Amino acid sequence: MSAPRKLRLWPGVILVVLQWILRFVVPRVAPDSGENAIMAGLALGPVILLWWLLFSRAPWKERLLVLPLMALSMFLGSRLLHPSLAGGFMGMLYGVYVIPLMSLALVSWAVLTRNVEGVPRLIALVASMLVGGLALTLLRTGGIQDAGSEFTWRWSATPEQRLLATSSSPAEGDASALLQQGAAAWPGFRGPEGTGIVRGTDLATDWAASPPELVWRREVGPGWSSFAVSGDVFFTQEQRGEQETVSSYRLSTGEPIWQHGDPVRFYESNAGAGPRGTPALDGTTLFTMGATGLVNALDSRNGRVLWSRNALLDSGAQQPFWGFSGSPVVDGEHVLIAAAGTLLAYSRESGELLWATESGNGRSGYTSPVPAILQGTPQVLQLSGIGLDGYDAATGDHLWSHAWDGYPIVQPAITRDGEVLISVSDKSGLRRLGVARDSADQWTVEERWTSRGLKPYFNDFVLHRGHAYGFDGSILSCIELDGGERRWKGGRYGKGQMLLLTDQDLLLVLSDKGELALVAAEPDGFRELSRIDAIDGKTWNHPVLVGDLVLVRNDREMAAFRLPRKG
């Protein structure tokens, strides 16, 4: 009787090692190549299975038995997942991770039991397949981070649960004596001009010699809101259990003043729970928009509700997958709200719906409205899934449009000569548009250029001295406004955010790992001047700078640092 043929294992070992390098190593060392590497790694799953079925030399009963065992294990695993994993990557997270796990389980079993025969070998096969398919059921995810997911044990408490366990009853104080008179120092999303530009700074740039001083640090509920600031008060939005909350805190100490909660909770697996918008402060009225479309006008002194609307119902739109992510914008007597492709204008005083553009179903976007004056005409710019539109600021009448399909998250920007820069996806790059009106009052839009030298995803860019600075994937980039040519690319800050300190030619960058950095806003080359660790965890929120005090937050903590001044 002839001896059984020796298993051919080396192809499987090589393939699974290559698969894991592509799937898990390359995305971390080369983030800009991460998506392609991940897809290539997943494509090796069927190749590994093909090796096993046709070239492994294993007994045919073992080769064929692997298929139903894999199918059963993955079926059980998909049914027992934590909800955060079941919905991750728009429902694809389990497959993205289970393919390399099953491949590793198969090859590891084949190698480790190559000298084992009979029932023990079959028992080991069943066990390895179950481990491969069920391993993820022990975990939950806090969302995506870099090219992967934030995994923790399924039974561990979330930061939000820990916060709720230690929190007392909601604060009900009064901020009247703490608010500044007149215009707020930082009235809402991306500052006084809505452009991420800070003026009048006089900061030292050598943080090694003069490090920023931590003023306070405290836990906060999940959400991707930034801040509005007035006097010794700041406002933000967060999730606290089943309450979507607007919160007021002392700027000098971080202590809570008042909180307003609505019985609303939004959650999706990629970004997690909580509101996405940033409050807008106008006088003593604070305007907010939640992730499900709830719009509130609150008394900024005590959180009392002045009026409330539901943008989802008022627009007739469908709730976007990632929730309503735009922020309210006050434009004269209008409060502008972007609702998944529909632009709404509410009365600042009464909350009456003054006008609305056509229904935005199927045109989801995640940007906020941008008031602008183009060709002498006050208008509102709004990006949606089919492109950019300009609307008359007083009536909401449609003026012009530029088609460009995508899922826009980044704010449009206006150049000094009245042209518009937009980006509609993480791969689209940046496009410059010329908008003109002729003597017959007809509007035209001309594409000047499209540059892939700067490809922001949800990381807003800034304009400075004839150049655009922003994120090209996870790396900073500078391009010329005249023709879109890239001047430099450098520095890894993940999916971070930035402010422009225009008087000092500086970028204040907040990385997606919570690091603060100063980078020269100069076209000659990338130059980082200083960097510190500020907060821990995935950080997508926009920073705020008021005077020499910088506010930073993410979905679990917030902090204030006093930056050193010159001299």
Plain-language structure description:
This protein has 567 residues and is α+β, with helices and mostly antiparallel strands. 21% of the residues lie in helices and 35% in strands. It contains nine helices and 37 strands. The strands form ten sheets. The chain has a five-stranded mixed beta sheet, with no helix packed on it. A hairpin with a 5-residue loop joins strand 29 and strand 30 (486-492). Helix 2 (34-54) packs across helix 6, helix 3 (60-80) packs antiparallel against helix 6 (93-112) and helix 6 (93-112) packs antiparallel against helix 7 (118-134). The longest helix is centred in the first third of the chain and has 21 residues, at 34-54. The mean pLDDT is 93.
Task: Give the arrangement of secondary structure elements.
Elements: H1 10-29, H2 34-54, H3 60-80, H4 83-86, H5 88-91, H6 93-112, H7 118-134, E1 139-145, E2 148-153, H8 159-166, E3 197-198, E4 213-219, E5 228-230, E6 233-240, E7 243-250, E8 256-262, E9 267-268, E10 272-273, E11 280-282, E12 285-289, E13 294-299, E14 305-310, H9 311-315, E15 329-331, E16 334-339, E17 342-347, E18 353-356, E19 370-374, E20 377-384, E21 387-392, E22 398-403, E23 413-414, E24 420-422, E25 430-437, E26 443-451, E27 462-464, E28 467-472, E29 475-480, E30 486-492, E31 497-501, E32 506-510, E33 515-520, E34 528-533, E35 544-546, E36 549-553, E37 557-562
Parallel strand pairs: 3-31
Antiparallel strand pairs: 1-2, 4-37, 5-6, 6-7, 7-8, 9-10, 11-12, 12-13, 13-14, 15-16, 16-17, 17-18, 19-20, 20-21, 21-22, 23-24, 24-25, 25-26, 27-28, 28-29, 29-30, 31-32, 32-33, 33-34, 35-36, 36-37
Helix pairs in contact: 1-2, 1-6, 2-6, 3-6, 3-7, 6-7
